[in-house]
Design goal:
Layout: E1 4-8, E2 11-16, E3 19-24, H1 34-49, E4 55-60, E5 64-66, H2 83-92, E6 97-101, E7 104-106, H3 108-115, E8 118-121, E9 126-128, H4 142-150, H5 152-161, E10 164-166, H6 167-173, E11 178-179, H7 184-195, H8 213-227, H9 231-241, H10 247-262, H11 265-280, E12 296-300, H12 304-315, E13 319-323, H13 327-346, H14 352-360, E14 362-365, E15 376-379, H15 385-396, E16 404-407, H16 414-418, E17 427-432, E18 441-445, H17 452-464, E19 468-472, H18 478-497, H19 501-511, H20 517-524, H21 527-535, H22 549-555, H23 579-591, H24 601-621, H25 628-639, H26 648-654
Parallel strand pairs: 3-4, 4-6, 5-7, 6-8, 7-9, 8-11, 12-13, 12-15, 13-14, 15-16, 16-17, 18-19
Antiparallel strand pairs: 1-2, 2-3, 9-10, 17-18
The structure holds (2S,3S)-3-hydroxy-2-methylbutanoyl-COA (T1G).
(2S,3S)-3-hydroxy-2-methylbutanoyl-COA (T1G) is lined by residues 28-29, 31, 64, 67-72, 83, 104, 106-108, 111, 130-131, 134, 138-140, 142, 275, 278.
């Protein structure tokens, strides 16, 4: 092997058998920063000029090929060479350039690989064009090269969904030419030498295979339906389906579209979410705190929530011991868990072997002492303080003193539950969102006496469960339900002031919520909230504005969709505006002598956003939430707030004062 040449801080090369092996080493994800682009440009120019170089291999250090453009540079003045410039020089090289895709090749990373003349991948490699998830479209040739390589329908699916594919799917699609599980670079050097001197396959010059217009039409319609009015997927469809035009024209259109989207609100919001997700797991003052090791997780209560948590834990590789009150209840819980695993198998998410392996790691019992081996026990029993404190006292007598105990309570005070155990420092809250095996969000509740390494354990388990952990302090309803209560309260104020349920729901859906608040209410049922309101009626602060409309509906038996009527009527199951509800609302307004008025959708959204953001500011002031980004993540991942609006705190900060 020849000596190493540093083309820039993050790009070096060494000659092997007259092939220049260029390695990108720009931790943590080999982003195509200005330094990397400059280094690549120098390496390519050197390879072109050096008569003893017969070709180039491009690869990445560590577990990434190139993780994409450096999104931290967005919004800054562009630094030459831009990625399209580097990519153009790469594809035009007179000598073969082979991509040795050693890991993640995403966004601009895959666009670089697509411009290479040949691509081989490690079995661990994943690749994709996730730009739409950042509110943009590929901006360095992806929409024009990928369809030339794999056809319009397959390219449309990947670009408009932003999903990644693993190496073997990439091979079957034609993105890569081979998957090599031996020495990848060595294989790439060999291929380069084989290609040297032969005509090079330049992706941009490949003919576009004709696609069945009906297929494209059907796929486009499916993508647009999911996009719910967001622009990037629609632009991706336009750019990919018009790929038969001259390459240079398509490239220019793609670049202009990318730049326009990149500098827009939606992309700014999604970049905020991207970085907020990575910030959320970092708890100030907790850097470097070692979590306690967890291999065996006990789950108490195998109802809907407990069985979902069990499935998530089994999918993450944990051994799971499920406990319920009786043998029958335990067996019912087991069947519920097996049923969920069967569904995962039927959908192809796990294969037969995976199913069997997960079932083998599950045991069920009605005897507390069977939880003795647990490193962590999560309770998802009935949300009643006496029930939970009794359970934790029993667990004290069974598990090791260093075993972590987690409560999944939504509304009780975890400090009171912790006080029931001899070791309150080992208690924290893990507030899952139902269905727990599907919803990413996990509120990690830092109780008053939670030990640092117990909080670290909660975060580590959340990461292994592939959840999105957000740390919250102890308050009724934690971050999510505190903000949701403020949002619900304001929506009911709007009803009293003149808006109607369907107008508020239409405004929310127009803003990007998958469903309006009152439609969600009807789906979940009104009785639980009604029972809570009645429970706290005596202690309610009479000075605070209280809206009685929901009570009147419940008293009239309008308990939601299951009851056939709630905020809406449901003749033949179809949600329908009900004049009876309007009459109840008008009677409540009259009882308070409120003169109602019309509200525009903008006014409705503005009031709801302000209510959420104001409550968020209180949570920050109380130290319950650590960052505005955390609050945004909770509302996006737990309550349907549209990610392309960035969350209530981000969105409110964008609205002109
Ligand atoms: N730019 C800048 N920083 C990035 C980055 C990127 N593309 N990707 C990750 N980071 C940071 C991240 O914020 C975190 O920082 C650290 O790296 C580790 O990230 C021209 C325009 C590659 C699969 O969308 O999917 O190319 O918290 O925790 O779990 O058409 O990062 O340590 O300070 O996620 O090992 C397209 C985004 C960009 C890929 C690695 N590319 N990244 O996962 O690490 S747009 C993407 C990821 C584009 C072109 C367009 C993942 C990963 P900190 P991490 P990971």
């Amino acid at each position: 092997m020849g000596e190493q040449t540093d083309f820039s801080t993050g790009v070096s090369g060494e000659v092997r058998q007259s092939v220049l092996v260029v390695t990108i080493d720009n931790p943590p994800v080999n982003a195509a920063s200005a330094d990397v682009r400059g280094g690549l440009a120098k390496a390519l120019a050197h390879a072109e000029e050096a008569i003893d170089i017969r070709g180039v291999v491009l690869t990445g250090a560590a577990k990434t090929f190139i993780g994409g453009a450096d999104i931290r540079e967005f919004g800054q003045a562009p630094v030459e060479p831009t990625l399209p410039t580097v990519i153009e020089a790469l594809e035009a090289l007179s000598k073969p350039v082979v991509a040795a895709i050693n890991g993640s090749a995403l966004g601009g990373g895959l666009e670089v690989a697509l411009a290479c003349h040949h691509r081989i991948a490690s079995p661990l490699a994943q690749m994709g064009l996730p730009e739409v998830k950042l509110g943009i479209v590929p901006g360095a040739g992806g929409t024009q090269r990928l369809p030339r390589l794999i056809g319009i329908p397959a390219a449309l699916d990947l670009i408009a969904s932003g999903r990644s594919v693993k190496a073997h799917e990439a091979l079957s699609l034609g993105i890569v030419d081979d998957v090599v599980d031996t020495d990848l670079t060595k294989a790439a050097v060999a291929v380069t030498l084989e290609l040297a001197g032969s005509p090079l396959r330049r992706t941009s010059q490949l003919p576009v295979s004709p696609a069945d217009p009906a297929d494209v039409e059907k796929l486009s319609a499916k993508i647009l339906a999911k996009a719910r009015g967001q622009r990037p997927p629609a632009e991706a469809i336009r750019l990919v389906t018009s790929v038969a035009r001259p390459f240079a024209e398509g490239l220019a259109d793609e670049r202009a579209t990318f730049l326009a989207l990149r500098d827009g609100q939606e992309a700014a919001a999604l970049r905020h979410v991207f970085f907020a997700e990575r910030e959320a797991a970092k708890v100030p003052g907790f850097e470097g705190v070692e979590p306690r090791p967890v291999k065996v997780i006990g789950i108490c209560g195998l109802g809907l929530m407990g069985s979902g948590i069990a499935v998530a834990a089994l999918g993450a590789g944990y051994t799971v011991i499920g406990l319920d009150q009786t043998e029958e209840a335990a067996e019912t819980g087991r069947q519920r868990i097996i049923g969920l695993l069967e569904r995962a198998k039927a959908s192809g998410r796990i294969d037969e072997a995976g199913f069997a392996e997960q079932v083998a790691r599950l045991s069920i019992t009605a005897a507390d002492q069977d939880l003795a081996p647990c490193d962590l026990v999560i309770e998802a029993v009935f949300d009643d303080l006496a029930v939970k404190t009794d359970l934790f006292r029993r667990l004290d007598r069974v598990v090791r003193p260093d075993a972590v105990l987690a409560t999944n309570t939504s509304y009780l005070n975890p400090d009171e539950i912790a006080a029931a155990t001899a070791h309150p420092g080992r208690v924290l809250g893990l507030h899952f969102f139902s269905p727990a095996h599907v919803m990413r969000l996990l509120e990690v509740v830092r109780c008053g006496r939670t030990a640092p390494n117990v909080l670290a354990t909660g975060l580590a388990v959340a990461k292994k469960l592939r959840k999105l952990p957000v740390v919250t302090g102890v308050t009724e309803g934690f971050i999510g339900n505190r903000i949701f209560s403020a949002y619900r309260r304001e929506a009911e104020f709007l009803l009293e002031d003149g808006a109607l349920p369907h107008e508020i729901d239409a405004a929310l859906e127009g803003y990007g919520f998958p469903m309006g608040l009152f439609a969600v209410y009807d789906m979940a049922g009104l009785e639980i909230a009604w029972a809570r309101r009645k429970r706290f009626a005596a202690s309610r602060d009479r000075k605070e504005r209280y809206v009685e409309i929901a009570d009147r509906l419940c008293e009239a038996g309008r308990l939601g969709q299951k009851a056939g009527r709630g905020w809406y009527a449901y003749p033949d199951g179809k949600r329908t505006i009900d004049p009876e509800v309007t009459a109840i609302i008008e009677a409540c307004r009259a009882a308070k002598s409120i003169t109602s008025r019309q509200f525009s959708s903008e006014e409705i959204i503005s009031r709801l956003l302000s209510a959420m953001a104001s409550e968020g500011e209180v949570l920050l002031a109380e130290g319950i939430a650590a960052r505005t980004g955390d609050i945004d993540l909770v509302m996006i991942n737990g309550y349907g707030f549209p990610a392309h609006k960035g969350g209530p705190m981000f969105a409110k900060a964008q609205t002109p004062r």
